[in-house]
Design the sequence.
């Protein structure tokens, strides 16, 4: 990828996170020679105080609805038509709510540059036909016929807009695209590590929400800091095993990145999944009631993810290898009581026998030594 | 190690943690055929309400001074003389404050069974001659001439005595001793994973306290959840690198055990290092003043560990490879201000280039792809 033609970037999405990213990308594009100054941002048109949102953004350089109080660089241009915004882009950054991704991709198919690359910032996944997890980046690649990398990490849109120091992980298989994407995204306060392990990065972003429900249950049951730490750790180990089973080729080291351990920690100590799950235990209300009460009816990701993961585990007859994920699903759906939670993980596969690991490249095999005396 | 003669266990130490462990070991010894019922516990004799502590324990089966409110099994026998307590033991569990270990070992040398094995529960380390870290298990092995395994994890004596669910890690090289030690220690609420990576397990227990100081600085500076998660993650990566440099042969997977990520999390969200470091930022007082004020004059482990680690890094000219450990040391000693902390880690080695890891057995090598366009 030669530096002759500066790359054009389009941000598809303009909510809280999209706008925070636009602020960063716009500044980087203005400074870096290998990026075209003009950054387009697809904005779903709305009327705000009698005026078009795209006009407000282009005149005042502020997304007054979704990121008020922060100036966007003037080289970021709000565009109300997604094809118009994306058609000349070399890099498409997707940051819309996941339910819109298929429609957007259908609209864009055949209308974008054939060598464009995508970067998905969309946490979550779509339900595969019949059940199970369909990764957003896979959907984008299938529907748009371009490679799609991912960005996931312990990030909060408001904190990033406030320029608070944090890290993020880009999962990118392409050895040249990775550093390019890092240049587009990185700042002195938003530090990027690129790994080539795309699926692992993306799956972490989905599965951590299940573990956060477990952390919330522990908080609701009043079980103490070290019980919570054990639940978080066992959850992490089930994330590792899940990737090993369903997305083979994943690397253990990727779980040490921001998308892994850092985002898991932050989600288990803050965030809505922990909070609602704690309330679930303390109030006895259903998840649905709590979604209505605490989230304005929005769907809580953790229980939804636990359900689709359970579908995948059932299909492989592997529920017993994932007792934490399975217990959380059963508690959310009322098959078990929260007070059953710890009993489900007392004899976790993690606690069986002595472990010694062989890591050859990205493969993990467990050698169980004969442990009986 | 045949099952013909039941193994005798001696617990060297009887404080809060030692007594909580004695409760567990006593119960296991009474139930398991391969363990002798009688478990001795070396108790430093004191007079409590006019009576000898060993007598109180042996009559009431309660360590009224160090673990009040919990019954010890009657087969645990308090012994005021350490040689008497240890001389017939096959397994010696060390759980005394680390400053006493050398003296105790000198007293025991030549007085214990030649084939005895040791298990150290002692978090911390001793200062090596001149400076740097001398692991407690290494001191025990040097002074007692017996192999010494370690037990470290996200554990709090009070919570374990209350039978709250948690995990712990045993680091044991010996393929038969590992499962034996697990049988001695494990219960339905105290779940043990055995790994063969002894030094890594022990080093984690020491280094996490440095990272906890960093977490405390972030809290004191009011920097937000994701900044804290980034600091914890970068601290973990420096722990990994430290082991790689100073205790080669360590395994990445061991950092996923309770002794690694779980204990780190719990220490960075609770614990005295975080608390005092937060106060350090908010009050402007020195570490010494805060030790006197908040810890009754006890020494805070984090700054002390940071100092000895810094000694080791300086000797290898590697301070720049460990910017977080180095910054924490400099802040504790007043060379830098807390507000300098984040600037020190903006360009962490973690953020340089694209990472791809090759893991062949326990070796880690970083292959840096050409990232410049």
Sequence:
């Amino acid at each position: 990828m030669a530096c002759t033609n500066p790359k054009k970037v389009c941000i598809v999405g303009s909510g809280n996170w999209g706008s925070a990213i636009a602020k960063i990308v716009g500044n980087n594009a203005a400074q870096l020679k290998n990026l075209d100054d003009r950054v387009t941002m697809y904005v779903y048109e709305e009327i705000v105080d009698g005026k078009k949102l795209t006009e407000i953004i282009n005149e005042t350089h502020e997304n007054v609805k979704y990121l008020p109080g922060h100036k966007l660089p003037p080289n970021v241009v709000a565009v109300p038509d997604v094809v118009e915004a994306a058609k000349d882009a070399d890099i498409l950054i997707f940051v819309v709510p996941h339910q819109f991704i298929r429609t957007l991709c259908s609209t864009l198919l055949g209308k974008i540059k054939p060598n464009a690359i995508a970067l998905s910032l969309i946490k979550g996944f779509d339900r595969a036909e019949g059940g199970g997890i369909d990764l957003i980046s896979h959907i984008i690649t299938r529907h748009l016929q371009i490679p799609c990398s991912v960005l996931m990490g312990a990030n909060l849109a408001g904190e990033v807009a406030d320029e608070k120091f944090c890290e993020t992980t880009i999962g990118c298989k392409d050895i040249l695209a990775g550093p390019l994407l890092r240049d587009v995204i990185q700042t002195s306060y938003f530090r990027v590590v690129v790994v080539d392990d795309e699926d692992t990065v993306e799956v972490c972003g989905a599965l951590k929400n299940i573990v956060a429900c477990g952390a919330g249950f522990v908080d609701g049951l009043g079980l103490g800091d070290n019980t919570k730490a054990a639940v978080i750790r066992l959850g992490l180990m089930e994330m590792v095993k899940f990737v090993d089973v369903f997305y083979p080729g994943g690397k253990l080291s990727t779980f040490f990145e921001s998308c892994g351990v850092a985002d898991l920690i932050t989600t288990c100590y803050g965030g809505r999944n922990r909070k609602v799950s704690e309330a679930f235990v303390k109030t006895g209300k259903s998840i649905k009631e709590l979604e209505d009460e605490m989230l304005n009816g929005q769907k809580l990701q953790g229980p939804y993810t636990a359900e689709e993961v359970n579908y995948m585990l059932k299909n492989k007859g592997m529920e017993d290898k994932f007792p934490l994920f399975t217990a959380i699903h059963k508690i959310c759906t009322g098959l078990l009581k929260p007070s059953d939670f710890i009993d489900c993980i007392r004899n976790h596969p993690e606690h069986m026998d002595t472990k010694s690991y062989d890591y050859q490249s990205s493969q993990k095999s467990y050698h169980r030594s004969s442990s009986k005396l």
User: Anything to note?
Assistant: Residues 356-373 of chain B have pLDDT under 50 and may be disordered. Chain B touches chain A through 74 residues (CB under 8 Å). The first strand of chain B starts at residue 7 and ends at 12. The radius of gyration of chain B is 22 Å.
